[in-house]
Design brief:
- With 437 residues, this protein is an alpha+beta fold.
- It folds into two domains: 176 residues, no CATH class; 200 residues, no CATH class.
- The protein is built from nine helices and 22 strands.
- The strands form eight sheets. A four-stranded antiparallel β-sheet has the order 11-19-18-12. A three-stranded antiparallel β-sheet has the order 1-5-4. A three-stranded mixed β-sheet has the order 3-2-9.
- The longest helix has 27 residues.
- The radius of gyration is 37 Å and the shape is elongated.
Length: 437
């Protein structure tokens, strides 16, 4: 009899142990971790979520959500919950031997369906970064113009820059996905960046006079070349150069291709004259170089063209550029801001630099041809001397240029008849064979 009682007590103990183990197991399944959360399961909308950033809207599609978030559903026993689901068999969701042995029908009315959301951080980060690329906009400085009396006014207003706050946006989207929310629209935060030069700063620029200008003539240019010149000058017209700032022509010019509005035209590239986007931009860089020299500014980077080009007469006063190198650079060594103003009259291109007259005097000598080769090659020199109002020397620079013969850089369709000096005999032989010379 005592023996039977012991066996009965032992069975009760085992039963209680297994029951609480199963209960603990079910509850443990609901515990959240770093990448997942358990929430009550409710049906979400199948429509896209609208993401609002400032005045713009972007879709968060259900397809994208499925890439980022995955959901696992299961049942737990919750005494405080009254079930309304049809299938309350917990073992249907949890395939477990102990679950099958110790399921109780009286628990059926307290079975709750739980969804466990797991997030993949990589596609979420990619989505947010792509969103930032679409939304972000750099601040734009105001562009100004000067009248005949040197009075400055803005013709292109400044604009604030905006950037999606990716850290906060990621957290907001994470919370939304984990909480299984049914909201239709989510507002994401952004940061505002002010421009360096605002529209209302015209009176603070210290600009009161014309300090120098450069000119060039593009007469005889084909229509694509003229078109490219007009596209490029828009980048520089109205630009402000701050005191002490180093101007970079290539940086301001930006990308040069069809997508940015340029047409194919002849350029000097890799020892050849060939078609490429932006042919004619060197007319703009050459004119800029001349204005900087006459304004008494310090030139820090400049390269002449490979061979003499008639558009840049007089030879020795040109500046070739090509993205990303070579570049034209100079420093605003005046006490105030410099305004660049550009105009075209007929086929004459003019760059005017407006600033503050600090009394400096700029003397330009040349360009002078030092040597002329029978094949058309040239050597030239150009001098720039700048003195202060008190007569002290501020700058004294010399720009020497060496130009090769144009015959070494054949144009498309043009056939050269003399071997370029830097070609090997094998190269020249192959060229003659190709062109039946």
């Amino acid at each position: 009899m005592a023996h039977n009682r012991i066996r009965t007590d032992l069975a009760v103990i085992i039963f209680c142990f297994l029951f609480f183990s199963i209960s603990s197991f079910a509850v443990a399944e609901t515990a959240p971790n770093q990448t997942s959360d358990a929430v009550s399961s409710e049906k979400k909308s199948d429509t896209d979520i609208v993401l609002k950033i400032k005045d713009a809207t972007y879709p968060l599609s259900q397809a994208t959500i499925k890439k980022i978030a995955t959901s696992k559903e299961f049942l737990i026993f919750n005494p405080a919950y009254k079930s309304e689901i049809e299938n309350t068999n917990t073992c249907h969701y949890e395939k477990n031997i102990l679950c099958d042995l110790f399921s109780f029908s009286k628990q059926a009315n307290h079975i709750q369906k739980i969804s466990q959301i797991s997030l993949d951080e990589k596609p979420l980060a990619e989505f947010v970064n792509d969103l930032a690329v679409q939304f972000n906009k750099a601040p734009e400085n105001a562009k100004f113009q000067a009248d005949e009396n040197g009075k400055i006014s803005a013709f292109s207003p400044s604009a604030d820059g905006v950037n999606l706050n990716t850290e906060k946006a990621t957290q907001i989207l994470t919370d939304y996905l984990k909480n299984n929310s049914n909201v239709k629209e989510i507002e994401l935060p952004f940061d505002v960046t002010k421009p360096e030069i605002s529209t209302d700063s015209a009176n603070d620029l210290g600009i009161n006079s014309l300090i120098g200008e450069g000119k060039s003539n593009f007469s005889g240019s084909p229509k694509n070349r003229i078109f490219n010149i007009k596209v490029a000058i828009k980048k520089f017209d109205g630009l402000i150069i701050k005191p002490g700032e180093e101007f970079s022509f290539v940086k301001i010019l930006g990308e040069v291709d069809g997508e940015h509005g340029y047409l194919p035209e002849l350029v000097i590239k890799q020892n050849k004259t060939e078609l490429d986007f932006g042919g004619g931009i060197c007319q703009v860089s050459t004119t800029t170089f001349r204005a900087a020299v006459y304004s008494g500014l310090k030139i820090t980077a400049r390269r002449n063209h490979a061979y003499p080009v008639a558009y840049y007469n007089p030879q020795g006063f040109d500046s070739t550029v090509y993205v990303p190198y070579p570049d034209l650079k100079f420093i605003n060594n005046t006490p105030a801001n410099i305004l660049i103003q550009v105009k075209i009259v007929g086929t004459e291109l003019t760059f005017q630099f407006y600033g503050t007259d600090d009394g400096r005097k700029t003397t330009v000598t040349g360009p002078t041809i030092l040597e002329r080769s029978p094949d058309g090659g040239l050597k030239t020199t150009l001098g720039q001397e700048v003195t202060t109002a008190t007569g002290e020397t501020l700058l004294k620079d010399t720009f020497n240029s060496k130009y090769e013969s144009a015959s070494k850089f054949p144009h498309p369709g043009a056939v050269i008849t003399e071997k370029p000096t830097d070609w090997s005999a094998k190269q020249w032989s192959a060229y003659k064979k190709e062109h039946n010379i």
